[in-house]
Amino acid sequence: MELCDLSAHELSLLLRQRRVSAVEVLESCLQRISQVDGRPGSLEPGAPQPEDAERVHAFITLTAERARAQAETVDRRLAAGEPVGLLAGIPFTVKDIFCVKGTPSTAGSRILANFVAPYTATPVARLEAAGALMLGKVNLDEFTYGSSNESSAFRPTPRNPWKLDRVPGGSSGGSTASVAAGEAPLSLGTDTAGSIRQPAAFCGVVGVKPTYGRVSRYGLIAFGSSLDCPGPIARNVVDAALMLQVIAGPDPHDSTAANLPVPDYLAALEEGVRGLRIGLSPDYFRITFPDAVRGEYDQQPIPGEIEAAVRRAADILADLGAEIVENVPMPNTRYGIPAYFVISRVEAASNLHRYDGVKYGYRTPQPVQDLHEMYRKTRNEGFGLQPKLRILMGMYVSAAQYSAQYYQRALRVRTLIRRDFEQAFDPQGKYRLHALLTPTTPTTAFPVGAVYGDSVLMQYADQLTVPANHAGIPGISIPAGLDHEGLPIGIQFLGPDFSEALLLRIARAFERATEEASWRRARPEVLQRLVA
Q1: Which residue in 151, 171, 281, 398 is the catalytic one?
Q2: Is 148 a known active-site residue?
Q3: What CA–CA distance (Å, rounded) separates 36 from 39?
Q4: Which CATH number fits domain 3-43+53-261+440-480: 3.40.50.2300, 1.20.1050.10, 3.30.160.60, 3.90.1300.10?
Q5: Confidence (pTM)
Q6: Which residue of 169, 195, 319, 438 has the fewest C-beta atoms within 10 A of its own C-beta?
Q7: Is 209 tagged catalytic?
Q8: pLDDT tens figures, 448-466
């Protein structure tokens, strides 16, 4: 294996033992990027090339010189015997929804294509302060609006390293693709309706959505301010815990960041699951799809391979000493997407008002007669289809004559979803769960172009992840097998507020128990095909 294929905690051990240098680790990652990534996403990519379909295309901006300077600093400190941070010498990528001083911070949109951030987001600053090496900014759905990474204005858009004709998921598709392809051990993503967990499941990596407020949102370009959660993406649970340890915690710049101490996420990782109560809900084994012809919703069982992976995981955890609690009712899960449609679009429309071509970002080059015309042309040219749809929908459902009918009702549904989880996790209640085990996604990665253009159907790719965002609770997605096409299947663990340490512990127990599983041996073969 190349250095770039080792985990963050393995690399950290080698670095501290002085068996490798930070520069060597960095150069290995840069070499992998040159082998598998292809041309970075741009606004003017030219005609699609045949080789584009054979590359990952995770990056928008590569910051190699910044990373080299950081690596040299780490090596000097290690050579001098000076203390270094928890992630010293570990490369990472950043979803391009975070501001990083001196770099283009585009949100995957034309309207911010020329915006160079004047400051650095708190999670990125904490990673760099811990000695991590920032490789660059990776692609995403425009303003995080999507579940496949196909809505980005920067083309070519990322592809799934497991099968390059499949999407990596979204909106953190560039992040999960970069980690799965061995371009970086870690990536910083965001989760608003499942945008860390869903692409993590599609790409066979680990993704953590922390409790709302556990990680600062300062410097995050907002989508849905009451839903957005920055979080780690990694190849295994230990690495995810390492990264969360660094980025979590209070922040005076963000009033919504929880003013609570950060526990030691690594301390209890190996304690196992004996005595824990882990629930299964029938409401997560049914998927809902809109029927546009009848104007109704159809429910059908989740694909058998995905349900089998979840039940296999439950059996493994039971063998390890956990108590599996069946038939936990989560009746409002089915309403997660309709409520999200309303709430997220109201918040998106509000957040997008600031992009007007006056203070920063894109401004129309066309001649205009007045300020109103400048606004109109700038926003029409700068925004892609998805932001425009969300602005229009958000303004419609929040209008005075419709607010009670849509927005207020959606907020009440959100409360009901939260109540489902509170009842399941209530230590004095009927179920007394420590965690809920569910599928992460209703399907495995779908083909490029198969769903894009149908905003409603695309949104339903997040139907099993979005309830956690409504409730504000933490969740973790981990790989749990392959389907008949050799594509990763993800399972997720959901827990009560600020239970990240417990979820990481459960996920680690499953990960250790399946280290020798045949599907885990498929990843090296995927990497060999990519490099070849």
Answers
A1: 171
A2: no
A3: 10
A4: 3.90.1300.10
A5: 0.97
A6: 319
A7: no
A8: 999 888 877 788 899 999 9
